[in-house]
Amino acid sequence: MAKGKATVLLDREKVEEARELVGGRSMSEVIDIALDRLIRVERLRRDVAAYANRPPADEEMAFAGLPVALDLDDEDVDYEALYGQEASTEAERRSAVPRASG
């Protein structure tokens, strides 16, 4: 992308705070990062607003009911070795939760 010089009036304290937050090396880099983030946020905001203004089509809703196959591709992972214990069952997890007396 082509870059060009610009003359702008800025609050130098804001620029310095932003530079510290993003680790920018120069005012130009900080402004470039800020503009990139602003553009990304505004595009997302517009996308969300567009979807919020219309209900999902029947074709889109048809996908919501489809079963999902979840394959973590983790057959070779030794979770017991990683975490030091066997995975607990749902019943064991529930019995470990303290019950309120009353």
Describe the structure.
The protein has a domain of 45 residues. It starts with 11 loop residues before the first helix and ends in a 7-residue tail after the last helix. It is flat and about 60 Å long. It contains five helices and no strands. It is an all-alpha fold. The model has no long low-confidence stretch (mean pLDDT 82).
Care to give the gist of this entry?
The protein has 102 residues and is an all-alpha fold. It has helices spanning 12-22, 27-52, 58-64, 79-83, 90-95.
Features:
single chain; 102 residues
Could you give the count of β-strands? 0
Structural class: mainly alpha
Q: What does the average pLDDT come to?
A: 82
Helix and strand element order: HHHHH
Number of helices: 5
- Cα gyration radius (Å): 26 Å
| Helical content class | 40-55%
Low-pLDDT stretches are none
Globular, elongated, flat, extended or rod-shaped: what is the shape?
flat
The span between the termini is 67 Å
Strand content: under 5%
Sheet having the most strands? none
